[in-house]
Amino acid sequence: AAESLVGLGPGLTPSGDDALVGMAAAVTAMAVPGSFDATFLGAVADAAPTRTTMVGATFLRHAAAGQFSASVHQLMGVLIGPDASDAHATIERCVAYGATSGADTLVGALMGLDALAPAVRDRPGLPGPDWVRSAA
């Protein structure tokens, strides 16, 4: 399913690529044992150069390795961290990034969190604050 999103949509980083980066950020941040992780993008990233832009392929390769920009770390911090006081401003900055990249990344992050929701419900406490702090 991830492969079908590569290169889909407009932009220097097509919408599908941005959504996949957001999803990878969510599953990396949550790190739920026994669930999938960002390495699911490995094969997709290998095939990406023939299906998307050079920038999109680069972002996918980094996401597959669990590497994200500071703005993605900030977004995940407000989505899963213990302090959501800056959530509104952070989400607005995210959505304002690029023509569609920020909104597409946010959608992907929310899809990733939704996919992990059953595993998280069965696990005490929220993971994430250590991952968020590591980006600082």
What this model shows, in words?
The structure is a single chain. With 136 residues, the protein is mainly alpha-helical. It has helices at 2-5, 15-30, 42-47, 54-64, 70-80, 87-96, 101-121, 129-134. Helix 2 (15-30) packs parallel to helix 4 (54-64), helix 5 runs antiparallel to helix 6 (87-96) and helix 6 packs across helix 7. The longest helix is centred in the last third of the chain and has 21 residues, at 101-121. It is globular and about 40 Å long. The N and C termini lie far apart (33 Å). Mean pLDDT is 83; it is low at 126-136.
What order do the helices and strands come in, and which of them pair?
Elements lengths: L1 H4 L9 H16 L11 H6 L6 H11 L5 H11 L6 H10 L4 H21 L7 H6 L2
Give the SSE string: HHHHHHHH
Biggest sheet layout: none
Give the strand tally.
0
Strand content: under 5%
Give the N-to-C terminal Cα separation: 33 Å
Structural class: mainly alpha
Radius of gyration: 14 Å
Average per-residue pLDDT, rounded, comes to 83
Please count the helical segments: 8
Share of helix, binned: 55-70%
Low-confidence runs: 126-136
**Shape verdict:** globular
Q: What brief labels describe this structure?
A:
single chain; 136 residues; mainly alpha; 0% strand
Brief overview:
This protein has 8 helices and no strands. By secondary structure, the chain is mainly alpha-helical.
